[in-house]
Amino acid sequence: MTQEDNLRDADEVNEAALSPAEEARRRKASHSHGHAAGFGEPKARRVNFNPLAREPKSTVQIGDVRYFDGAELSRPLEMPPRVRAIMLAAMAVAAIIGCVFLGQYLDQIMNEPIRQQQALQENLARESSYDFPLLASLMPLSDEEVMGALTEAGYTLYERTPVGTDPDGGFEVIKLPADVSLEEAGLMYVKGIDKLSAADAVKLLKGAWTLTVSRKTGDDMRLRYADFASGTIEKAVQGAMQVEGLENAEVTDSGVDDSGNTYQTGVISTDNGTYNWRVSVIELDEVYDISGLPNTAFYVGIRFTAQA
């Protein structure tokens, strides 16, 4: 037998001696090689390759189980110093802002009512002259003459309805307290007296009066103001009669009307004519819906009407 025949017989013997497991392994390796060679099948992914990681993850294989290296999970979880400094600064700013808002809120809840009460008492105690005009002396004058007389008296006036704007004649003007500017009063009246605090309402009303002149059904003048000093309705009525020179006038009627006003009426004769007069008083909080107004404050109205 030749040497070539001997080698061929040896190969055949080796092939016959391969175990079924070895044959399966070789077949699988050959199949994988065919895929890698480009026979239309996807290439096998590299073992331990993570496409989201910059580097392959190291693993340890024990038997058929592969374990990933857990060293990265056990490292300390610490943020960079720069990021930590920014976060601490942001937390400090947030804490300061929170303290400021909390302080303002607590101040508004706890101290604002005290400040308002103090301001109310200060405005009630301040000296503010009314300087009431005598309606009997103004009754025979025209609108322009009445307005001229008020201006010459040095009053600070807020014209709610200026002279000449009503086609029927008449006007309405407010005399302001001496310590309240025209601009400040204008803002308060635009806002509405009912919207003011009790302290601001007293500041605006004490020392002020409103004169309304009407010519629609004859000559009619009304003077209205808030009384914070009389203390009782009866004294407020007597005080109103006194400022208009009616303290000795004959009273023809008195009582309480359907609106709750305590009133007195009568007739007065002057060199300029004979006029019907009426004085009425009601609690101030019946006129203005303002919380905190003193219960000894009254709304006073004085009316003069020329007899036909």
* Order of helix and strand elements from N to C terminus: HHEEHHHHEEHHEEHEEEE
Principal-axis shape equals rod-shaped
Radius of gyration: 50 Å
State the total count of DSSP E strands: 10
Report the end-to-end length measured between terminal Cα atoms: 165 Å
What assembly state would you assign to the polypeptide chains in this entry? single chain
Overall structural class, as computed from helix and strand content, comes to alpha+beta
Share of helix among residues? 25-40%
Low-confidence stretches: 10-18, 29-47
Keywords: Membrane, Transmembrane, Transmembrane helix
Organism: Adlercreutzia shanghongiae
Protein name: Teichoic acid transporter
How would you portray this structure in words?
- With 308 residues, the chain is α+β, with helices and mostly antiparallel strands.
- It folds into three domains: 3-39 and 47-68, no CATH class; 83-119; 128-306, no CATH class.
- The protein is built from nine helices and ten strands.
- The strands form two sheets. It has an eight-stranded antiparallel sheet. Strands 1-2 form a two-stranded antiparallel ribbon.
- A hairpin with a 2-residue loop joins strand 8 (262-270) and strand 9 (273-283).
- Helix 4 (112-125) runs parallel beside helix 8 (198-205).
- The termini are far apart.
- Mean pLDDT is 81; it is low at 10-18 and 29-47.
